[in-house]
Amino acid sequence: MKLELQNNRDFWAGMMFLGTGVGAMIVARHYPFGTTLSMGPGYFPMVLGGMLVVFGAFILLRGLRKKEKIQGSWSLRALIILPLSVLGFGTLMNLAGFIPALAAVVVLSAASSREFKFKEVLLLTLFLGVLSAAMFIWGLGLPYPLIKKF
Predict the structure, then answer these.
(1) Taking a C-beta distance cutoff of 8 angstroms, is the pair 60, 14 a contact?
(2) Smaller CB count within 10 Å for the chain: N or C?
(3) Does the structure show a pLDDT above 70 at 4?
(4) Once rounded to an integer, what is the mean pLDDT over residues 58-67?
(5) What's the rounded Cα separation, in Å, for the pair 7 and 10?
(6) C-alpha–C-alpha distance, residues 106 and 129, integer Å
(7) Which of 103, 98, 110 lies closest to 134 in space, CA to CA?
(8) Which sequence spans correspond to the domains of the chain?
């Protein structure tokens, strides 16, 4: 029985989840854990990392049994635009505020696809802007300015 792992979709997805979970647990290992009622800064990354490890192991084992091949090819456009949109979000948060940064990340992320439709992206940007402002700024009280004045 020969294992073909190079193009096994579930195997690599499981490896990604395992790596992310283990990485989160390594970073959070020195943070105080706390208890369920009094969570420390290490509680959430450790619990979430553990869940990712379990989920990743399940997907990886499923990939070893199923052997479903990876379909498609790499998108150079997405590989360039998506990291730039995240960097743009971080930069615009400091320079312009939450709403312009969110609008930029949504539009740039959508532009990384060949199926970009301006009306759909505009509606998504408006919906996510209102929802995110309601949740993060007004609901959670995060100290981000909606729009900075120059």
Answers:
(1) yes
(2) N
(3) no
(4) 86
(5) 9
(6) 10
(7) 98
(8) 9-66, 76-139
